[in-house]
Amino acid sequence: MTQDYELLEDSVRNTFGSIVWSHKIQEKQADLYSNQYRWMEIAKIATASLTSIGIVSLIFTDYMWLKLASALISFISVFVSAFFKSFDLKTMTNSHKITANKLLVVRNEMKIILLKIKLQQTEVTELMEEYESLVKELGEIYENAPNTSDIAVKKARDALNITKDNNFSDNEINSSLPETLRRR
Prior knowledge:
Oligomer: single chain
Helix content: over 70%
Number of strands: 0
Strand content: under 5%
Order of helices and strands: HHHHHH
Distance between the termini: 35 Å
Largest sheet: none
Number of helices: 6
Structural class: mainly alpha
């Protein structure tokens, strides 16, 4: 019977690890789009302002370099506006955040299954049914998940392996708990 728990635990742990990675990748892709949106907004405001300044200054002067600079800045302004119309970065950011949140829920449910496996107070067949249900739910999340970039994967790798985003010391956990629930 213990071997059944071990087999199930191995499978659940593997799925759990996959979810941790997928969640972090979706978060990092959302961050990338959010940062891109922020910079595009700044560029949009700056180029619109500079275009206005250039056009107004043309009323008072007739320098060729000013005309060229105004035309170039105007082109950049139009490009940024067209980019915003073609790629809805806010919606893309939100879709990655939604997927990350769904993965977080399933990840937490997988933790509960791992706890139940360790306690061995629930029959393996019942745990297997819970696990299969979660794997089915996970499949639906993955099916509807937006695509991510290699950059998001690299950032997720750095976050999980180098900065240890998902690891917490006892002191960090204790600081968020009431004294009666703290580890000594």
